[in-house]
């Protein structure tokens, strides 16, 4: 029992530090975050306290209001922190891969399964919706990458649906902040065993990066990439 209490005490400073860092990060992008959280907490507490006086139970409603004020502030903080994080990630290389890594249980993601000379990249996620190819980069260039990858998927796993998404703010594209929601809304057509079998087949397929030795560190000047672009896991 003592060990559990000690572990909990050691974990609390870490959580508080993480919350403080998240707040600082959010405040850099959202200058009004402090005022907003204070307003949400005060208004929520004030409403419940007023109701308490009206019905003759200010103490009970005051305590309930205090708890709900904290909860409401935490919810608002979480949403604004998420919005700030996406705002900072928008347009950064690998942003879509970071979102895919946190999509949740039931999905297996493989970043950078295809890439071209211009650093446009395609990531792959496998779940009960099938295979989802997520591209980030120039919309015109990534279309050829997606077409080539879909063709390869159809050869290896022809019985599994393949979806393709392009991250961006243009027409027919998916905003980074909506990527996770969009994927989770896709119809589920595979069972758990089918998802596992699909992942095993794709893993057995391998990729160019796993079979081609590359030098460590920066790419040497003058080194030419193979046609079709490198593909990395």
TrEMBL record:
Residues 210-233 are annotated as: Disordered. The chain crosses the membrane at residues 33-53, 59-78. InterPro entries: DUF4191. Keywords: Membrane, Transmembrane, Transmembrane helix. The keyword Nucleus does not apply. Residues 219-233 have a biased composition (Low complexity). The keyword Glycoprotein does not apply. This is DUF4191 domain-containing protein. It comes from Streptomyces regalis. The lineage of its organism: Bacteria, Bacillati, Actinomycetota, Actinomycetes, Kitasatosporales.
